Amino acid sequence: MRKILFLIMLVIAGNSFTAPTSRSSKNTGMVSQVSESEKREFERAIKNDVEQPINDSIKAELSKSEELKKIAYESLFNEDYNISESLKKEMAQKFLKTLIDLSLKGLDLKIVMKKVNRVSENEVEILYDTKAKNTENILSISGKEEILGERVLKRMGYSMNKMESILKNKGNDEIKRKFYNITMEEMAKIINQNIHELKDEQVLVEDIPATLKKVNGKWQVQDTDN
User: Fold this and answer.
1) CA 126 to CA 194: how far, in whole Å?
2) How many CB atoms lie within 10 A of CB 37?
């Protein structure tokens, strides 16, 4: 199973959270041999087994990305803003974490059963696909910048000129920190709306084999990797 996790992680992270279909499958049918409730149990067991490790691996890799750190700095800090280095680092890290968390939320990983071979009452061999939302554009706030600015200034209680003056001059770190925190919160609301409206799905990896065994009444994935 560790090899499968690594493959899915590479597909997702290597394609900026989008992925093409890996190959066509000829294995169809067979799922009809199990009840819908059992099918859901199998899918839930596999998802529970793979989703968190995938998310953790992607977060760890992307958090180390120098390119993403550069994007965070360029997105947050205008050249004429007077922001202390410690506050820049704090806000850039939070901004990067926010983007990664929202991107993973948008993926909405799904397990799609394709074939089930019942070995015994308490063991099944399964072939499945992983699907996820096409998240290529969910982080975009293009066309909504004015709305974002209005919401932030309203919550701050400042005019645009006053806020610009604070950002361009030394001091007032707490006001600046509040400004960036509110900006990220309002940006997240827009992105969450993008996620809500997202419908297009893509196959990440096809024809993944797994063996499930029922342990204490619950189906669990058996890791067959060395």
Assistant:
1) 34
2) 7
**1-6: long-range pairs with CB below 8 Å, 24+:** 1/49, 1/50, 1/210, 1/221, 1/223, 1/224, 1/225, 2/223, 2/225, 3/225, 4/50, 4/205, 4/208, 4/210, 5/50, 5/53, 5/54, 5/57, 6/57
CA 210 – CA 190 distance, rounded (Å): 38
Please check whether residue 102 is in contact with residue 188, taking contact to mean a CB–CB distance below 8 angstroms.
yes
Q: What one-letter code names the amino acid at 30?
A: M
Q: 141-185 pLDDT, tens per residue? A: 778 888 999 999 999 999 999 999 999 999 999 999 999 999 999
Residues 6+ apart with CB under 8 A from 71: none
Separation of alpha carbons 63 and 56, rounded Å:
10
What does the pLDDT average to over 51-72?
A: 78
Report yes or no: 77 and 28 within 8 Å, Cβ to Cβ. no
pLDDT in tens, 117-144: 989 889 999 999 988 887 777 777 778 8
pLDDT tens track for 190-203: 888 888 887 888 88
Phi, psi (deg, nearest 5) at residue 26: -105, 0
Q: What is the pTM of this model?
A: 0.70
